Amino acid sequence: MNNEVLKLGADDQSTAASYWDFSAVDNPDFYTSHQGVVQSHPSRQRGPTKTHTFVKHLDFKTSATNELKNNPSLSSPDECARACREGEPPKTCYYHFTLEYYTVLGAACQVCTPNATNTVWSNCQCVLADGVERALLTANRMLPGPSIQVCEGDKVVIDVENHMEGMEVTLHWHGIFQRGSQYYDGVPFVTQCPIQQGNTFRYQWLAGNAGTHFWHAHTGLQKMDGLYGSIVIRQPPSHDPNSHLYDYDLTTHVMLLSDWMHEAAAERFPGRLAS
């Protein structure tokens, strides 16, 4: 994919989270910073005016890159993680999740450290977790997995590619109403057959209910071993009844809590240990 020129409001360009909506940085409703898109409210404090030009390669997996190139109607995760404006046409937001066995503190951690503020994608394939080495399951070698961040009314398209040896999987989009798309709810043997190793399944649903939700594996104990991530569906400030309670809506301000152990979830299956 061609390099994109991004305007970032950060003196240290190495801290840039990666992106965000560079096509509309002059819009008074938001500005860009090294933390991501900041959505502000009218009559409140404006953001920084000093900008830098920085070239950042959007590092998608080859199959995801080709899909975006071949279908110009699709928008990338970076383009969809934007400040939402009233009257703006909806986007069709494309994601590609590659699921696989991986390890905490693997070889990649010797050459890079993941950017903790970037929840959408990562060039660094190092998973730190809590610093204790163990096997895990990942989507795109991230923990938590990629964050889906869109605006209310967007269509979300996710290709899930299963590279987990000997395992099948489905993903459930927790909190999404799935009106008219119930067959993409991700319940194995109810709304779909599980995705077998080596296969790819396409989920498609409408981001119709604003709020903070999450996605997770719906097969076995895979959710506890790392297959989960956040979903943030934004509204324009004029539609948000809580908009008066905050000054900025940062795309990087996502806190996702989960149980985490130093062994596989199956080792803690109820009944394994006598009480």
In short:
The protein has helices spanning 62-70, 77-80; strands at 4-8, 30-33, 36-39, 52-56, 74-75, 92-103, 135-139, 148-151, 155-162, 171-174, 200-206, 211-217, 228-234, 249-250.
What does this structure look like?
With 275 residues, the protein is mainly beta. Helix content is 5%, strand content 28%. It is built from two helices and 14 strands; from the N terminus they run E-E-E-E-H-E-H-E-E-E-E-E-E-E-E-E. Strand 5, helix 2 (77-80) and strand 6 form a beta-alpha-beta unit.
Which terms would index this structure?
disordered N terminus; globular; 275 residues; single chain; mainly beta; 2 helices; 28% strand; 4-stranded mixed β-sheet; 5-stranded mixed β-sheet
Produce the secondary structure layout.
Blueprint: E1 4-8, E2 30-33, E3 36-39, E4 52-56, H1 62-70, E5 74-75, H2 77-80, E6 92-103, E7 135-139, E8 148-151, E9 155-162, E10 171-174, E11 200-206, E12 211-217, E13 228-234, E14 249-250
Parallel strand pairs: 5-6, 6-9, 8-13
Antiparallel strand pairs: 1-4, 2-3, 3-14, 6-7, 9-11, 10-12, 12-13
Number of strands: 14
- Looking at the structure, what is the overall shape? globular
For the termini, the CA-CA separation is 55 Å
Structural category: mainly beta
What helical percentage do the residues reach?
under 10%
Q: Radius of gyration over alpha carbons?
A: 19 Å
Strand content: 25-35%
Order of helices and strands: EEEEHEHEEEEEEEEE
- Helix count equals 2
Low-confidence spans: 1-60
Major pleated sheet? 5 strands, mixed
Residue-averaged pLDDT, rounded? Answer: 79
